[in-house]
Amino acid sequence: MNLYHLLKQRAEENRPVGVALIGAGKFGAMFLAQARRTPGMHIVGIADLSPARARESLSRIGWPPEQYAAADIDAARRTGTTFITDDAAALVASDGVDVVIDATGNPAAGIRHALLAIENGRHIVMVNVEADALVGPYLAAQARAAGVVYSLAYGDQPALICEMVDWARASGLEVVAAGKGTKYLPIYHDSTPDTVWGHYGLTPEQAVTGGMNPQMFNSFLDGTKSAIEMSAVTNATGLLPPSDGLLFPPCDVDDLPSILRPRSAGGVLEDGGRVEVISSLERDGGDITRDLRWGVYTVFVAGDEYVQRCFAEYGLVTDDSGRYSSMYKPFHLIGLELGISVASAALRTEPTGQPYAWRGDVVATAKRDLKAGEMLDGEGGFTVWGKLVPASVSLDAAALPLGLAHGCKLKRALAKGATLSWDDVDIDAGMESVKVRRAMEAQFGPAEARAANAAAG
Known about the structure:
Blueprint: H1 3-12, E1 17-22, H2 26-35, E2 41-47, H3 51-60, H4 73-79, E3 83-85, H5 88-93, E4 99-102, H6 107-119, E5 123-126, H7 129-146, E6 150-152, H8 157-170, E7 174-182, H9 196-199, H10 204-209, H11 214-221, H12 224-237, H13 256-259, E8 274-279, E9 296-301, H14 305-313, E10 324-329, H15 339-348, E11 360-366, E12 375-377, E13 384-390, H16 391-396, E14 406-410, E15 425-426, H17 432-443, H18 446-454
Parallel strand pairs: 1-2, 1-4, 2-3, 4-5, 5-6, 7-8
Antiparallel strand pairs: 7-9, 9-10, 11-13, 12-14, 14-15
Helix pairs in contact: 6-7, 7-12, 7-17, 8-12
């Protein structure tokens, strides 16, 4: 509870935390809007494929032009201003950088930038949860071995869920379930960039005017983003994924303890200690009265009758037994909160969530009947959606991870709903992302994955 004090101390000592941001999109822009108001933090440089776009973003969020007019890194460091470049590798290697933030959303780019950060002794904050879902346990292990922090991004839902799980466990509470809310109906798995706006109540013209990316928004809708985020949570907390994909049960916040409990106790979970995403819609499409569409939750159980009585005495909402209760946070502020991760990594050498084992994986699942020769278009596209399964299940099936199901050609026809395998596609084994994924599979192989699942906690 003293991050602000530590940041102020760094400001008073004139040695602010040096930050390199890669990717000046929405998440990055939200962080930058707050970073200039945060003492003890200096955005040394911003790397983006389009420096002009980065400058436009800074102008839009109110940065004065002189703040990002540095001619090079040395000038930025001397004057406390910010250098904008398209050379992420050079920025990561620059003196004065303590923390690297990857906010690109591209798995291959995230892997490359994380490895560069580790090689150069920089802490890495991985906004790019797509990269984390693909190889996060491997990257985190590499970072720990190098003595730097690999961290999930505070403000995004996975890190906030990890915080709630940590709070519960550090309080001696057994966590039964944890996760987030979203808008979900089973038909959304079929959604494509051509149909997505109808589900959001928008016209294509309105979406274009708002600068919205249909494939990105479709990944939120078709279940893929939820699977990716819950894989980050399961790998960081030890909570297990469902055996065969997320259930997305409709749930009011007051019903969390009743619905997110084991089936043996009247709930929907296979057993305790699972991740799950709840829907803000009833299955008939009606709205849940008190939904958690923008928030996160944890469900926990009283360890004995005394704790159960305490739940009642202090007004906790419980299930009918009085044993199961919950806490939730109704909103998350995305990039506006990201500075918590930066400060925690730099000043405490602590991550705001980090994968410690490989328990969950997101596998590519056919969105429709697919023909031989078709090109896969990845997250939120027309061909596949991402399904969360145990890592051991993924390995046994030689399943193709969702993060690699982009730009590769199908070798055979597949029926709708089929799990794609490595053998189903032509893929370049020499790509860095493929090699790192294979290295993770070797490090956290079937035996290790099964043992981690069995010993989760």
